[in-house]
Inverse folding.
């Protein structure tokens, strides 16, 4: 009897959580459509104009959008980060992006840890959840490099990491190291101050994209070797 009650309570708890998230997403979608922001999310120029029009509230809105893109809404983080660097400059824009993304990453991991696989599956899809759970369960240290490089689904990785054996300490430390590097590199390069989007800059951008693509391929192809290397390294340090 007690066992059945516990199961029923757990199912009810999961249902309430999922319902709350659905309601929250519906409200956020309505707000984004009502404000016209939904149409601007895939354009740096439109995003820049929208945030500038908000004046003082622009910074708060920008941090909130970076928070949302990690947790609930599929907003391209690169576009937001570049827009922030163009609006507020690479340093201030990078700090604002870092604030929102770190908060979003911690919440995503917390949701995974607290509410488990059912919620993560609901948010990212069963196929995606299964794929990344299998990967991260065998490649915990590779997660560090995946968070460092762009174009990996970092929002999905943060959620899924919560339902693996990954500890809070490892997750937070990884984010504190990798997030600032990735965000500030994107902010300073994306602002166009160091590498322009014309002339010789186009050649450099092409080289950077190819290099990033190769690094991503190497990380996914040799994840087992990377994992074994760090496992052996930490074992030696413990001894």
């Amino acid at each position: 009897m007690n066992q059945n009650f516990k199961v029923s309570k757990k199912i009810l708890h999961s249902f309430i959580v999922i319902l709350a998230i659905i309601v929250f997403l519906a409200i956020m979608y309505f707000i984004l459509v009502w404000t016209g922001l939904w149409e601007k999310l895939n354009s740096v120029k439109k995003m820049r104009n929208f945030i500038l029009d908000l004046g003082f509230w622009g910074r708060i809105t920008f941090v909130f959008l970076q928070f949302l893109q990690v947790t609930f809404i599929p907003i391209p983080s690169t576009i937001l980060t570049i827009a922030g660097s163009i609006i507020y400059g690479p340093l201030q824009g990078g700090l604002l992006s870092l604030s929102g993304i770190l908060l979003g990453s911690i919440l995503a991991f917390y949701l995974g840890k607290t509410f488990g696989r059912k919620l993560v599956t609901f948010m990212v899809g069963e196929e995606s959840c299964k794929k990344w759970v299998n990967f991260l369960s065998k490649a915990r240290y590779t997660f560090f490099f995946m968070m460092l490089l762009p174009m990996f689904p970092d929002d999905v990785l943060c959620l899924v990491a919560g339902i693996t054996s990954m500890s809070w300490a490892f997750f937070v430390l990884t984010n504190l190291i990798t997030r600032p590097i990735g965000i500030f590199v994107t902010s300073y390069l994306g602002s166009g101050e160091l590498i322009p989007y014309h002339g010789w800059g186009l050649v450099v951008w092409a080289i950077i994209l190819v290099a990033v693509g190769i690094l991503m391929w190497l990380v996914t192809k040799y994840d087992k070797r990377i994992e074994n290397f760090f496992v052996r390294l930490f074992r030696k340090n413990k001894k």
Q: What stands out?
A: The CA atoms of residues 144 and 174 lie 6 Å apart. The chain has a mean pLDDT of 78. The chain has one domain: 2-238.
